[in-house]
Write a structure and sequence with these properties.
Chain lengths: 122, 270
């Protein structure tokens, strides 16, 4: 190499280049399926992250679509006060309050029967 | 393969392989198959020692792809030559001097920069060769080339990403890349060197244009990339007349490695 090698050796190495970081990979198994988290790869940049995701989660034709996201770009929330509060939150579930016992008690107090199913005779 | 192997297994003899067209096709197929086989086997040496886990998987997978291409090309060659040998016999039962891969691939795996340099030079040349075969009149090859080109797209993306990173990193990565390119540069064009059957390939519409034209297209591409990266342009091809013969010690060592198992028990089944 002679002179040429000496000349480039004097150049500084870009220290930021080549530093590995984690990337999260989401994969779709077939058209119409949701994207599901597959795992992660280590890579220095997005291009190589996509290449490695392709190798790790697609080389056996097990995916039709991949999303590759830098883990640092993911907004993380794991606070138990926000996600698992200590008080009963059952009323926020789609089923709502459990009403059966309350209704039965109210009917008994007022002497009413449970209404019959609508037979269309109104 | 030992020194005492019978002489008839030494020579790749195409003289009984039909007319000029079939001989030319056989020579083309074998040169391409040997290229893919040698780079595939050589790159597979990175398995377990790749720069990082992900790259280890990636280079191993790429090497497997190349071996898959070689297998398909050897099968097609065996059909064309129809001398009773199957793809494995063609791939493994020749002495080192019987292989027709380009001299570029006689350069050993080397360090990671050398592997990337070799892959870049080979993959870009192979892409130009495959483009010239995309419309080939030999239908089985046209189908195979279409499939191979779809995989080679990713191979090119992978190696170009690495070439850029090594070249642009400066310091030791760039220096190692330049050392490798300087060593391999004069042999890079051997992938597209004239094959003896070229007139027949052109006459029968097997190959779209002469290898010299394919080489010009390839050089323009490489010159553009090297210009952008500030790398020295590729030199002219050294000794094009022996582009695919007189293989190196590095290849003889590789050949010893990849024939070892079959050489120990040729009739073994798996």
């Amino acid at each position: 190499m002679g002179e040429a090698a000496g000349a480039v050796e004097a150049e500084p190495v870009d220290e930021a280049a080549g530093v590995l970081e984690p990337w999260e990979v989401f994969r779709q198994e077939k058209d119409g399926d949701p994207m599901r988290h597959g795992g992660s790869v280590m890579a220095p940049d997005a291009t190589l992250a996509v290449h490695y995701a392709r190798e790790m989660y697609g080389r056996r034709q097990e995916s039709v679509h991949l999303w590759v996201v830098r883990r640092a770009d993911i907004h993380d929330l794991a606070d138990p006060d926000l996600l698992q509060p200590p008080l009963d939150r059952s009323f926020k579930k789609p089923g709502g309050y459990v009403m059966r016992e309350k209704l039965a008690a109210a009917r008994e107090a007022s002497g009413q029967q449970k209404p019959r199913a609508n037979k269309g005779d109104r | 393969m030992t020194e005492s192997e019978p002489v008839e297994r030494i020579a790749m003899d195409f003289t009984d392989a039909g007319d000029g067209r079939e001989r030319a096709i056989a020579l083309l197929l074998l040169s391409m198959a040997d290229d893919e086989f040698v780079i595939g086997f050589s790159d597979s040496e990175w398995t377990g020692i790749g720069p990082i886990l992900e790259e280890d998987v990636a280079i191993s997978s790429l090497a497997q792809d190349e071996l898959g291409h070689a297998q398909a090309l050897y099968r097609l060659f065996a059909e064309v030559v129809a001398d009773g040998r199957d793809a494995d016999a063609v791939a493994y039962d020749r002495p080192a001097e019987g292989y027709l891969h380009a001299r570029l691939l006689d350069h050993g795996r080397g360090d990671w920069a050398a592997t990337i340099a070799r892959r870049y030079l080979y993959e870009t040349a192979d892409a130009a060769r495959l483009a010239a075969l995309a419309e080939t009149s030999f239908e089985p090859l046209r189908d195979l080339v279409a499939k191979i080109r779809r995989e080679e797209r990713y191979h090119l993306m992978h190696v170009e990403a690495w070439l850029d990173r090594l070249a642009e990193a400066g310091g030791e990565p760039r220096r190692r890349l330049m050392v490798a390119l300087e060593a391999m540069g004069p042999d890079a064009g051997t992938v597209l060197a004239l094959l003896p059957g070229e007139p027949a390939l052109l006459r029968h519409g097997i190959l779209a244009e002469p290898f010299a034209a394919v080489e010009s297209t390839w050089r323009a591409r490489v010159d553009g990339t090297f210009g952008r990266l500030g790398l020295a342009p590729l030199p002219a091809t050294r000794d094009p007349g022996t582009a695919r013969t007189r293989h190196s010690h590095a290849f003889r060592a590789l050949h010893h490695e990849f024939t070892m198992v079959r050489g120990s028990e040729a009739a073994a089944t798996w």
